[in-house]
Amino acid sequence: MEKTGSVDSLGSKQSSSRHPSVDSLSSSERSTQVKAASMMSDSATSSEFSPEIRVKPKAVAKTFRDADKEELQLLPNEVVQDMAQEVTYFCPFTGALRGIVTVSNYRLFFKCTDREPSFVLDLPLGVVSRVEKIGSASSRGDVSYGLVCKDMRNLRFAHKQTDDTLKKSIFEVLMKFAFPVSNGLQIFAFEYGQVFPENGWKVYDAVSEYKRQGIPNESWRITKVNDHYELCDTYPATMAVPVNIPDEELKRVAAFRAKGRIPVLSWIHPESQATVTRCSQPMVGINGKRSKEDEKYLQTIMDANAQSHKLFIFDARPSVNAAANKMKGGGYESEDAYQNAELVFLDIHNIHVMRESLRKLKDIVYPNIEDSHWLSNLESTHWLEHIKLILAGALRIADKVESGKTSVVVHCSDGWDRTAQLTSLAMLMLDGYYRSIRGFQVLLEKEWLSFGHRFQLRVGHGDKNHTDADRSPIFIQFVDCVWQMTRQFPAAFEFNEYFLVTILDHLYSCLFGTFLCNSEQQRFKEEIPKRTVSLWSYINSQVEEFTNPLYVNFSNHVLFPVVSLRHLELWVGYYIRWNPRMRPQEPVHQRHKELLAKRAELQKRVDELQREVTNRSASSSSERAGSPTRSITPVQTFV
Amino acid sequence: MLTGSKSTFKVRQMGADIKERMLTQSGSNARRPDVSGLPCLPGEVVLRRAVMVRKKLTAREGRGWLSGTLFCTAFRVAFVPQDAPKPQDDADPVLLGDHDVALASIEKVVVVGPNRTKLVTPNSSLKFTPEELVLYCRDLRVVCFLFDRLTPDAQVLEITHTIAKTYQPVRAGCVSAFQNAALGSVEMKQFLSNRQRDAHMNWHESAADWERELERCGATGWRVSSVNDRFEMSTSLPRYLAVPQKVLDTELKKIFAHFHDGRIPRWCWRHPRGGSDLLRMAGFQNNIYHEKDDIRNLETILFGGHGNLCVVVELGDELPSPPDVQLAHARLRALCLGDISTSATVPDDKWLSTLEATCWLDYTRACLKKASEVARLLRGGGMTVALQEAEDRDMSCVVSSLAQVMCDPHCRGRRGFQSLVQKEWVTAGHRFRGRANYGRDNPKEEAPVFLLFLDCVWQLWSQYPWRFQFSDDFLLALHDSAHLPLFSSFLANSQRERCRRTQNAGQCYTPVNGGPEPADPPLPSVWDWSLQYGQRRQAGFTQPVPPAPRPLLNGNLNAQTDARGHQQANECTPGTVFLFSRGIFSSPAGLPPWRGGTAGVTAAAASISGVYRKSHRRAPSSESVPGLERLLKADAQRDPCRPLLPLLLGPCLGLWRECYHRGALHAQAFSHPPSGEHAHPLELLVREVRGLRRRLVAERRLSQGGDDRDAVTASAPSLPADEHLADARPGRSASITSSDGDGG
User: Which among A127, A507, A548, B668 is least surrounded, fewest beta carbons within 10 Å?
Assistant: First the structure.
């Protein structure tokens, strides 16, 4: 008897200024010529990121978008491929809806025609994981198609069987464009021609990021040995390594590390010089092979930090899995070979376990939620437990570096999944810079993209092979961990929840080039920065949409989140956003904007007064000089 | 194992302490800080103290440690940080400092030694010197003190033992002993009797209070009756009842007998739009003969004197019973507190299912669900919604007040909320004394129904924090105060009991049959916050940014009644009563029981509990049922009076961590850089603006000498404009809302 009534909120959809947003079903967006900047100004709000049903804010009354709010607004270079009338969409929340389906090379657009106010569904084809024809033609001549999506929902459509057997169903057309890679087509990101005022490809520059960290210094240098990706094809061209190890030796170390992924610097503590380095597993094998160069290398990493005579090696895997890897030539550092090193296993499971866990989670949240057993069902997915283990691992790393002033080496098997999660989370805890909007983009560019998290494989962009065992929600899991931290430290992050959801939406949408390919080398070859638009262009062109009003810049603080399951929550704003009963009657987003405005107003007032005070004390030449220092104390987190 | 060889408790080193005690006693003329640095209450005696103690701070307090001195008095365990500011001599006494724990709220005392933990009871003797002292509190706090190596062992042992001995063990009379320790001194009594009550809230105690509430809600057609002035009609109802104007007191008197404990239907609240009235009543007393006139009058009340339609909302079987609530809360407490003495903490990976098994969240959901149904019904206009519970003293308090929090923005302000609790709980006769069971002598009645209500409010708060003027810290403070047997609000089962007590206190009455019981100290109300907490804590009771003012309604609301409501009211044949239960409307013949031909017979057979049976239900007979059902489902998006409806799906209800997880046990071991303040950034900015302004004024004064008066005064008037950001003005919001309902 709760809000079954939200049905009526159905069609009054909203419009949002962020037109490329995956979710904006009814992108009442502006015509494509309008500059991105202008869209920001009239941004309407909708906080909750689930656009399936949205309420149109009254305030939006821009001239260029009067009549057809729920009409399809094509993006630059988006081309309609097919259209079908009389299609039924079986909405799991509101029942069957009849309408028109349009398929373009970017999206599926469903507009309901038999309901008032109307309802639209706007789905980037990139989120489709699988299209299945359900059953054979029924007696009534209907054919039914199910769309399994990567973003925690399934959609079901049906339409009449056409008499003309040669004519393809619209869903077969859709399949072609949903899986362009499998059909020899181009991913839409290569065609999308939007111009944004900001250029997101300029956000990250490896050299300046290392410079920010104070590298090069007396212990660390920047090497160009991988300039042509010859040392390691999954590593970036620019890396930081110990000064005392010449490039020749790096090559020998690379021979002993899986896929040549040698230990390289991720982060250095500005004071203690303790470092976070990342690599892949050593190729120890069953016979316990050793490499003098590798041992020396780790010793050098330890020596680079004068504060500690120890080195911690964090192996993200459960020890059993690490041992099992010896059969495949891998393994872990023995403490005999690596003196002064202590090996710690962090018990984080592999990509297959994570995939299975998220699948179970989807089962319990979509479409229906069983209230009476919600918590035990949630427990049985183990999703939060995995989140906890990852956060706990990152916390141990951060604690060793910050409190123990000890350098750490992090690896898993290949060093591109769990390792990326751990190093980037630890860096988020240790360095406030990464908690800003720009800094977070740098963090992703550096730890995930440049160090070769295999986005293409893990997400399967445009690939119809949905059963591919390489697919896994590793990046989602990382973003979930970030969200958990934002919950515990609501004032420590410059970005808001919508920012995180947007990143995940565009992880799948294939609208931007950011998450395409598996490595820097591939991106370079494909000329991604030249041929596609960066997600950061879009985000940085309307930063205020993504800004957390509660943010207080306390970059010098190290965050130590509580990692007990008692303090973790399911990220309902992402996983359960499609359920209209999860949508509060007033969006948080709106409130946040009001707060931001209020804050700006007050800040202005403070500045004015400050100026006045300074002027006054100057003019009155009283010796109690010294303008009031800005004294905003950091906001403490509650857990 | 060593037996008794090491230092056991048996007192040594008494000398210094006795001296100290003498000092405090001799100089006990009110509010003098104890020589040792503890600002004592008048008459409060420091029993023990220990120096060089560190207190573990919770996440909310900034984590980390705070060093200072630990005290034990007959009333509390107090901790004074080293650098605590010296209290002013003339400051009013505050019962509990920021770091204090009242003895009565301690549930158990545990000490941690080098490699063991031990539960300390009044009789236990310790064979090791504790390094850590952990106090488990009834209000679910866990307070942890760490003894330094420099703390003298004797002090450690003695203070531990003293705390274990003086905190409230289960024994008769402990409640009044505790009250006396806190409030019993002559100075304290005098101080309390001079306290002013908060005039900005409605106490719902006098006839005028009720008049004010009727006026605020625009409830025309209702009057305040003093028929229960001497509690002769009903012992548990308040003195004053709001009833329809049409019913005379003489007629009213005959109705009491038809309801359990005389709790007749009476007015609680009117929806500002459409003017639907919320009523509550106990179950029908069916075993008496229903006279025709009585029935007519009764129906007049039920229909609120204006409407044709009455929906009786049954609060029986969909909501938890008090024993259910008690069991769930006990489980929740066991789960959240953990227990280092038995190390029986629930493993992390079983946490969620164990939490589910407490049923606590299910119960909050059930209450919120029922209340939101009521809130939706109230939008209907021109009808009455009567909550009926067998006794009308538990769940009807929860549901009626929750529905008002949802519908009435006034109740989401601090004073409005306090008025609401006064109206629906304190004076309405919730059995606070029995349910709280402070003396631990009545386990059968114990059930934290009020805490369940606070949890429900918190759920609503956490979903829409910006729609509340009070903060969650206010709810937390109220939660904690409910565990202290000090407040008149929570120490009586009814208004009648409370009145008796004050009379007794006034006349220094000593019971004839009772022993030499000391005269009760006058008990303060729980709303006297400055008695309980310092200014800083109180400042946190309101949110830094108050809710944006909602579109105001003009006084003439009934003119624009919801079309649907109107239609439906017109559809109805006069005098339709529906029963709403389990989400279904029905109009059974036997509702009310005297309706229908065989009333007498059915009634006699009906029920002892006083609530009619479901078997009377018949298929809905009126076409207005669809109208009502629509009301339940529809969401008027643009309705300015739209109630604040909670999301009820499993994932939407959360655990009130700030309350139940305050124990430091689950926090990780790493210390966090302690930071002084944890204010909202906006509030910090507001403070900065204010500080700068003050500075500016001072500068002007200095720089221009005497001739600057104008400038100073010129800038002064703009001050309040900023300050309303931080200091919320519940008084004002009250007046705003009161004008809303005019003419309703």
Answer: B668
